Amino acid sequence: MQPDVIALVALEGEDSAVEALEARLRSLEPRLQVLERTRETAAATLERARTTLAAEQEKLIQAKTRASSSRTLQERNQKQLDSITNVREATAASAQLDQARKIASDAESEAARATVRVEDAKARLAEAEQAMAEIESSQEAERTAIAGERHTIEADLRHARMKRDGSAKRVSQPLLGRYEKVRRRRRGQSLFPLINGACGSCDTKLPVQRRLEMSRTGAIEMCEACGVMIYAPAPEPVAAKV
Predict the structure, then answer these.
(1) Cβ(179)–Cβ(190) under 8 Å?
(2) Mean pLDDT of 123-143
């Protein structure tokens, strides 16, 4: 084969190697995404638990404040009733005291319910924190493995790209431009040998004269049917007769 053909065949091999490594690198992303989605779900649950606890604690503070104010009001009304000797005034003060007692009772009940909700929220937060810790622990080995694979692939990819650049320099610029244009369009193998006088990609037969010219000159042509680049491989040596 002509030097251009040899160089281009080598280049396509290097491009295939680069693309295979790039595909392996991309294949790591879905694995990471699964891990991230699981972690994000647990993190969202944890954040909701924290927000809920903070809200319930604030409600508890407010309930205790109202309960304290109600007790103060009740005690004041009680003192006022104790100091009254007039029956009419005592009746009015007694009604106020009853109302203050009801308000205080309601406030105490709400404070008790708020206390229960805070304890429940603390329990849910502890569960969410435990779940997050378990997820992070279970993912550690997988994330380490993925990071190790990424490091290895990236190192291999740098080496493969260097080899590819070296192969590209051995191809003439016009031929390299044609090849890269075809490869971008096909996103895959772009150079095929003639096989039994036909395109190795689509099996379209080439005219005899054209095949002979390609064999004689080493020219790399375009397949008019599928648009790939085709070349005539070197003839196999004939075994000597014994």
Answers:
(1) yes
(2) 94
